[in-house]
Amino acid sequence: MRSFTGHTDAVTCVAFSADGRYLLSGSDDGSLRLWDVAGGTEIRGWAAEESGVRCAALSPDGRLAVSGGDRGPARLWETAGGTEVRRFEGQDSGTSAAAFSPEGRLVATGGGDGTVRCWDPATGQELRRLLGHTADVTSVAFSPDRRLVLSGDAKVENGDDHVRLWDLQEGRELSRFGEWLFVVTAVAFSPDGRFAFATTMDARLLAWTVADGREAGRFRVGTGNVLCLAVSPDGRRLLTGSGSDFYETDRSTGLGTDNTVRLLDASGGRELRRYDGHTGNVSAVAFAPDGRRAASAGADRTVRLWDVTL
């Protein structure tokens, strides 16, 4: 295990470049930092969001990054110099989710206004606005063929409308996934696009078949809040991060501390390995493109690199 240190507040997001050479992290300290994975050194860091970075994504070629915070629109950055390229104007109540499409020609963002929006990063033009969520959108993901977008929201009432699947070309909702969900924290597609996954604040991991929306699995993960999710490049494993800091003290004492990274079998939710070391909520996880390493980030202000080979 290797640690990357330098942030002065909780690290909220982490992402690898497509070649696995670079790692991007964002923090409540308002900064984005780009790291050299092999050397474990910071390449550069820059002030990005005064309200703290809530989400960040790295383009496949590593040349661009998008970030969002609690206030104002998402921003696009050149990573070579940490310079702002443009802002995606319109989603001004804050951006809590962001993703690049697989080829890097689109950006999807989710906001505090409950909308999912797709943008052209070359021009900043809004291409699609997807309406339907009734709470903050916490996570967005493109399907591997970029035809679909998956999104989840932070609605606290148990319901079946927290995870939604959208047709990007037509700009319409295709389906809603799940029953009795509570505060979706992350969503993801399998690499072949056949399955959709989500994690929730009540320690659940869920899977559905995209074609018909049928539930393929519902699993309990640990004892804390499951805050983040990543799918391995081969689709056979999942990575989750948990935290217990959101529980009231008396409940947390009864459940125990669960600031843990877990490697799970994607087909059955079985825990394959557990990675301990974070001393606060684990708020972000990501697989390296080779599937042999993974990064996690958390409230203890660190980014950690793990060997996830079995």
Amino- and carboxy-terminal Cα gap: 15 Å
The CATH class, by name, is Mainly Beta
Please identify which CATH superfamily we are dealing with.
YVTN repeat-like/Quinoprotein amine dehydrogenase
Number of helices: 1
CATH architecture: 7 Propeller
Strand order of the largest sheet: 1-28-27-26
Descriptive terms for the model:
WD repeat, globular, 310 residues, four-stranded antiparallel sheet, repeat, 28 strands, mainly beta, Methylamine Dehydrogenase, Chain H, 1 helix
Helix and strand arrangement:
Elements: E1 2-5, E2 11-16, E3 22-27, E4 31-36, E5 41-47, E6 53-58, E7 64-69, E8 74-78, E9 83-88, E10 95-100, E11 107-111, E12 116-119, E13 126-130, E14 137-142, E15 148-153, E16 163-167, E17 172-177, E18 184-189, E19 195-200, E20 204-209, E21 215-220, E22 225-231, E23 237-243, H1 249-255, E24 261-265, E25 271-275, E26 282-287, E27 293-298, E28 302-307
Antiparallel strand pairs: 1-28, 2-3, 3-4, 4-5, 6-7, 7-8, 8-9, 10-11, 11-12, 12-13, 14-15, 15-16, 16-17, 18-19, 19-20, 20-21, 22-23, 23-24, 24-25, 26-27, 27-28
